[in-house]
Amino acid sequence: AQHLDEDKPHNYMLFNFSPFGDALSDSCANGIVVDFFLSDRDQAERNLMRKKMPMPPPRQQNMENFFLLMHFCYTLHRWVAADKEHIAVMTFLTEGPHHEFIDFTAMMCTCYVLFSGMEVSTGPQALKFVERRHKLQRSIAQAASQEHYVNYFHLMFEVPQLPNPNRLKLHRISLHNMDAGLVNNLSSLVIECQGVSKDFGAGVWEPVAPPPIEVQEEEARRTRGRRGSGDKKRTELFTDLNISVFGDFALTVYYYDTVSESSPKKRPLFRCAFSTIFVHQQQQRIKAKDMDYALATAAEIAEAESNSSAVEGPAGASSSRPRPRLT
Fold first, then answer.
1. Which of 2, 49, 52, 177 is buried most deeply by CB count within 10 Å?
2. What is the arithmetic mean of pLDDT over 56-65?
């Protein structure tokens, strides 16, 4: 901040995506600080509580949001186009084992590059270009969702008409090919939509009735000898929610890790982020490779949290992750 104040007084705008927004605002005397880390609601609450101690820890705003992405791109573009002396600075906090904040650096830069007119075939292609050109790295925790939103952002400038501008009803979520060992450890289902988060708890899940014996025997014969078709017991779960959703929303399923910790620890089993404007069918199927956290092994989780991969993980943490389907 001191360097910017001395070198570019009144000619810089700092876009903050880190939890240090208050400190940056106090330090940048000759520039403009735009805070994207906190939502407007959280910022207002913290302003009211400034005189109260201790302050609650900041809650990071999810940037997988079309309104915020467009607001960021328009604000940055207007600023740098207004004067050739103007510069824009972005501050982020790299993901690490000692905090839960998400790094949106690569996603935000890619969206601005697309907004500025970069011609590419797909959004992920632009993301790879930004990572290579600017030596940035996409989020480790939410790589799949960020790639989805970069692709969505690219499609907004390419498709002549949005596939679905209407509000939808989220009727059912079903989990397929679920490791039976994880069923009793499910913790909660959390859905975020339009800035509001709701926890449905673990009791919402119901088992799907198994198919007739003849069908099971035929399936066993058909898959015999295939990789991953062993005797490990699988199950299917579903929940009927019937809630109205519109725009950007995400769902996260949590579970209790009872193996790699001395005491059970709540962890995300998987997370999926969507925009309803790109859901044009009655069913949306998602594979594990397209989910956040779903393919992380127990060793990777342990390494991210303690820089050590010598911790044995929960049963089914890698190849036996669930293969959900959102409908």
1. 177
2. 82
